[in-house]
Amino acid sequence: MFASDYREKAREALRGKWKRMALMLLLATLLGAGGGLSVSGILDVSSNLNLNGAANAQLRRMLTILATLSACSGLWALFMGSWVNVGLYDLGCRVLDGETPRTGMLFPKGIYWKCVGMSILRSLIVFAWSLLLVIPGIIAGYRYAMADYILVQHPEMGVMEALNASKECMQGRKGRLFCLQISFIGWMLLTEAPFYAVTLLAAPLLAVLGRNAALVAMIVLMVLCLLATAVANLFLSAYMHMASVIFFRNAERPQEWQRQARQGWDENDGDSDPEAEDAYDEAPAGDPDRRVTSLTADETVARDVFMQHGCSRKRLRDEGVLEEYEALRVDSSFELRWLREYANALMLRFSREPEALDEILELAAEYAMDDLLTRALERIDRHIRQQSLSDVEILNMAGRVLALVVSGTFDEHPDYVRRRREQVSDMADRLEARLREQNPDGDWQRPLQLVRSMCG
User: What is the pTM of this model?
Assistant: First the structure.
């Protein structure tokens, strides 16, 4: 994917949510996300001054107060900002999956001290590399850029494990992330445009209004520009953050899925899936299945049982093995990871086996997996563009997904339901236009009417 692809997906994810996302970024900034003030500059100034006499004593007190405030800001950024920084990636992932931004998403549960510890450890590592030269420090910063994202996606990981996972995932991708970030340079310059305009207006205002009036006008304009720039930067930060989340999600592919995608379903199919190929090509270096092989014997047995039954507790119960499975006392974080792996595998199958939609819908209904339904609709939309299935079959598949969306399972997320209705309505419009042109007398009117009724 190119930088433009990440930006396009970020705009799509933020459609209808720009304001709320900007407000979340403002709140995160107020809570210390991004770091606090540095004490070093203040200490350098105070050490270089000859502080003698009453005036310099007063200056020394002011510098002491500033240094204290700066230290407090740094501690606040460490103990609150580091937590919120990780929460921002949880927020971004949920927005990407169609949820509405909420304040509670900024505070991920159960990993507070991991967030603080990782912030300290990562800062020390980057600082150590920076002692060599500036460039190694910058490279180290990119090397561990994914650590916050990985920690919130895999809360069962330790601090060093998350940092090492980031190092693996960013291998060969540091330049891509830099190019993605630098691609926003035009927007960054545009947010500063009001200040350039005020600077150009200085001479005309001085000539027309006089010195005092021009000074007042300049101050008013600068304040307005400052507010405009602050608001614009909030929206730009939301845009950049979502693009980064999409980049990290594309980089952090489940390793078991990568192995199966390359060795399993593609073995007997010459027409490879671009998404599966992308998953393999961007696989992190090292052990291809490090986290799975680190399981204990009981956890390995539990994983096999869980996977064999489609990661469905309902199937485990129906086949009478649920009690045996629960007796293994598997941590819920492992179960969640296996569920994600299995869902990813299903999506790869669905690209060439339409009947896999039955299992996708069953899994999404059992666990209320709105992100899985979103991805299913994206795959259906790909079938529309590629015309890889009949239009009537595609229409029926979209209707089945929408039927689950409006069934009441996702009533707690009305914005998600509304967006999926709009998405399927757009699919129906495109399919109807094609069907009227290619098959005007076909038996597609009834399924189309059913889909229309669910779209509202």
Answer: 0.53
